[in-house]
Amino acid sequence: MSGQSMPCDAVELSTLFLFEKLDGDQLARLCREGRVERFEPGFVYQEGEPATCFFVLLEGALVLSRRVGDDDVETNRSSQRGVYAGAMQAYLTDAELQDARYKGSLRVTEPSRFFILPAEAFAAVLREWFPMAVHLLEGLFFGTQNTQRTVGQRERLLALGSLSAGLTHELNNPAAAAVRATSSLRDRVAGMRHKLGLIATGPYARDALQTLVEIQERTAEQVAKATPLSPLEASDREDALGDWFDDHGIAGGWQLAPTFVQAGLDTAWLDQVAAAVEEQTLEGAVRWLNYTVETELLMNEIEDSTTRISHLVDAAKQYSQLDRAPYQVTDVHELLDSTLLMLSGKIGDGVRVVKEYERSAPRIPGYPGELNQVWTNVIDNAVSAMGGEGVLTVRTALEREQLLVEFRDTGPGVPEEILDRIFDPFFTTKPVGEGTGLGLDISWRIVVNKHHGHIEVQSVPGDTRFRVFLPLTATETDTPQEAS
After folding, report:
1. Using CA atoms in the order 383, 385, 389, 391, what is the torsion angle rounded to 10 degrees?
2. In angstroms, what CA-CA distances link 294 with 259, 299, 369?
3. pLDDT (0 to 100) of residue 483
4. What distance in Å separates the CA atoms of residue 295 and residue 298, rounded to the nearest whole number?
5. Which pLDDT band, with edges at 50, 70 and 90, does 38 fall under?
6. What average pLDDT does this structure show over 91-114?
7. pLDDT beyond 90 at 203
8. Which one, of 404, 378, 400, 445, lies nearest residue 152 by Cα?
9. Backbone Cα Rg of the chain
10. Residue 151: helix, strand or coil by DSSP?
11. How far is CA 432 from the centre of its chain?
């Protein structure tokens, strides 16, 4: 946008804090190479346009803003003479890192005058008049970028190590259970073969043996359909089975009772067994069927353990997105579940996780692997804030024509005086060595820059909420090539 051209006054420039130390020749050069323009209320330049000029406010009021999704979010408002904006990094010597495009928008709320210096002239006078300052600024700019990149990589490696340790721990439990159950199953099968041999040579009638085999088949089916009992119900049924064993002269019945109860069997089932065989062979038949019950229970345990391992592996693949395209339409709930599962070891038993999902919410376009990184950073901060004790609520909803993903914790909250700084690079409230201050900065850039959404934070003691808003549809700039 072009304003109304006006004469440049070197004396007026000398009254600005930015130029007050310049001599007459330097001020004259600024007027010669720059210009003064007057703008009516509206945009002076907009985010994404080529950064061609450096602007210094002479008179009026300006507002700086950044584009967040479909909204312009105000970042600064000032009427102070001498405030500046625009191509502020034109002095950089690395062409690829120069401020080639405006990173925000500038608008005025009343008729305003600016001193405008073309980016090339701004860079030339800086390098000529302040060579040491330019070197220091370049060093600060590139140093900060390199530090942020290095620390970010380190943070990701530490997070990967922590997740790997958690995944290993989670895998160890079902794997150990499967190994233990397999070893026990081998013993039970050997015992069953021994008992089968005794039954084959024992005094069992053909019809009784056939009935016993039928009972064995029904027993296996009953084990698969068994429903869990409360501790009190299980205790009462064990007592009843123990009494039944004592009444029928079966020694050590108290050892058999828990297994039968776990399988969902009761005294009525034992009565069927007693009716099928002779009294002198009842104990042998019961113990043979006990092997059947134990075998079925062990196979169920092996199935549960291996299924758990399979789910963990699927969750790890979902979390890392290693076998998927970086940009895709995805179900946020699957991403949240995989992240919570991957972090379950770190969350610990002291934190209760509550899920309030809006399952009817549509799938959204985005970068699943990077969204998982956002969830990881926010959940890690929430668990750390609660000190391992409290409630973490993960909620999704449709709000403002966007998908809301909200993380609510019952920690002490974020102090109001630092609430507006938590997304700043390297800002952290964690002890030295425990946080880099980049987690929320990375999360902000992923949500805002990569997905064109935004993040809000609301915090009072006992109720801190990180609210992530994501667009339901892709914008014109959202293409798979962006991930390259």
Report:
1. -70
2. 7, 9, 43
3. 36
4. 5
5. very high
6. 75
7. no
8. 445
9. 36
10. helix
11. 23
**3-class SS of residue 313:** helix
Type of residue found at 483: A
- Amino acid of residue 179: V
**Distance in angstroms between the alpha carbons of the first and the last residue of the chain:** 33
Residue 318 sits at φ, ψ, to 5 deg, of -65, -40
* Angle of helix 282-320 versus helix 368-386 axis, rounded to 10: 110
Do 292 and 219 touch, CB atoms closer than 8 A?
Answer: yes
**Model pLDDT, residue 318:** 57
Q: Report the alpha-carbon distance of residue 46 to residue 53 in Å, rounded.
A: 12
What pLDDT score does 429 carry? 54
Retrieve residue 162's tokens: 């922590």
Please, are residues 276 and 212 in contact by the beta-carbon 8 Å criterion? Answer: yes
Mean pLDDT of 260-285: 80
CB contact burial 73-108 (16+ within 10 A = b; e otherwise): eeeeeeeebbbbbbbbbbbbeeeeebbbebbbbbbb
CB 438 within 8 A of CB 148: yes
DSSP string covering 425-472:
TT---SPTTT--S-HHHHHHIIIIIITS-EEEEEEETTEEEEEEEEES
- Please list, residue by residue across 322-339, b when 16 or more beta carbons sit within 10 angstroms of its beta carbon and e when fewer do: eeeeebeebebbebbbbb
List the structure tokens of 247.
């009444």
Contact between 364 and 475 under an 8 Å Cβ cutoff? The reply is no
